[in-house]
Design brief:
By secondary structure, the protein is α+β, with helices and mostly antiparallel strands. It contains 10 helices and 9 strands. The radius of gyration is 20 Å and the shape is globular.
Length: 284
Amino acid sequence: MTQHTLPAHLRVALDLAHRGVPVLPLRADKGPMGNCRTCRKNACGGRPNMKAPGPCTCATPCHAWAAATTNPDVLTSAAWAGAWMQAAAVAYHPGGAGLTVVDLDNAEAVKWARQNLPTTKTVPTTRGEHWIYRGAMRSVNGVRPGVDLKSTMSYAQWRGPGTGTMAPLPDVVRALAVKKPAAARPAPCTVSATAPVGGGECRHRSPAYLARGIAMAEQRIKEAAAAIHTTVYRTFLAVLSAHGRCGCLTDAHIKRLFTAAQAKGESLRNCEDAWTNALTTLGM
């Protein structure tokens, strides 16, 4: 297969890899595609952060940021051939390239950045902008309304080279990752996710069992010291596995779980994605 006959997204990926940027294919819903047939549609349950063991049992990393690579042999291998044919976009691992992306998700967030952050390379997105700095740090979602930090253990969609000169990662951006006191957090956004079957009674468990399960799920999220994304997803998956089909979950239960996740820095969008992925994994 010649360079001209390669899928368009793979050509972009190979160019980025040549410049030292680890890349991976992205689905239309902005989710990462596995680089093997078993994991391509996340049928294995996924291992999104690769920091803690998950349902996936593949011998090599095949999910999200950990699968991003600069190796052209891997990118053009048979394992990823189908993924690139179906890919809707290219994603990259900013931290792996020594970069940090300040993801500004709306006009208000962009306005805030222009007033508070040093000028750097900017890339327009569908709803806002990516501000890219030279230097890596830990990734944190929801550091302020409409603002996520994507660097290590995270991925961002490649949207072109952008404009402007890339500046060194400033202390003001690093400071955004410092956890604020709980009282300073804004109230969680309205939860739009709904229970698959809501409002009924738990026919195979007692009400006390459900109440205890939700409380334990909240506590598990609150006590997570690392791999927050993974903990939230696996907690949602456990709750839905036990109660998703029996009719006992209500929107109030979901709100409690989302509130606990947002208190750990997860954005509403990430909570909704984790809930949807858990439903999909369980076939609900």
